[in-house]
Please model this.
Amino acid sequence: MELPATPSPPIDKAREAASACAGCREGSGLDFELAMAFQPILDADRGGQVLAQEALVRGPQGQGAGWVMDQVSPGGLYAFDQACRVAAIEEASRLRLAETGAQLAINFLPNAVYNPVACIQATLRAAERTGFPLNRLIFEVSERERVQDPSHLLRIFQAYRQMGFTLAIDDFGAGHAGLELLADLPVDLVKLDMGLIRGCDTHRRRQVILASIIAACRELEVQVIAEGIETAEEWTTLREMGISLFQGYLFARPGFRNLPVPAALSTLTPLA
Model:
C-alpha cells in the first residue's frame, strides 16, 4: 500500500500528536536492546511455500521473550510495542524478507495503542525508511492478552483494515473471549493455540473442537493456521482436517536474526 502524497487533516493531526510522544519516535524510552528471531508459516497447498515469517522478540544475545518481558516496566509497554514493530521491520528488511515473496507477521499489544492512527506512525516511518512494502505486513493480536476495552480493539482492527494490513488472532482457543473476538473483529487469519494442537492425532475431544473451529472459519472466509506443530502425526491429522497453513518446530525452529529454511513437506509422513 502506498502512503498518500497529501495526508488528510485527521492524519496530519495524528502525526502532530505522535511527534510529541517519545514512544512514537521509533520506540525510544527502552533501556535495553531488542533483537528478533523469525519462524516461517508454510502453505501446504502451495507445496510448503513460506506464506510469512513471524517476528519473535528476543534479547540482544538471543534471550527468550520471557527475559525480554521481565525488562519491561508497566509504564514502558507503549515504547516496547513501538520498538518491537520497528525492530521487526528493520531486521526483516536487512534480511531482504520481502524479496522472498513472504509476508512479515508482527505481534502487537492492543492495550499499548492509545490511537490507532497516531500509534502506527513509527511503523509507517520504519517501512518507508527501509523500503519494506506495507502490503506485506500482518498484525497479530494475542487472545492471551486481556483486552481492557473490546470496542477499542475493534477500532484498531478497523483502522488497520483501512490501511490494507492483514489481520490475525494469535493463540486462538487459549485465552479470553475467543469466539467473541472471531465474531466481532474483521480478521483474515486465526492461529490455533498449540494447546489445542498438542496430541490432536490421538485426542478425540481436541479433534471435535478443532473441526468445529475450522468449519466456522471456513464459513467466515477466515484462514486457519495451526501453530506449534511438533510431530508428523499432528501435521497429518490437521492436514486431513483441511488446514493448509502450518507453523512449528517440525518445519523450522525460530532463527535468531536470520530467516530459517523450512523442512520440505515431502520429508514428512505423507497423507494416507
In short: The two ends are 42 Å apart (CA to CA).
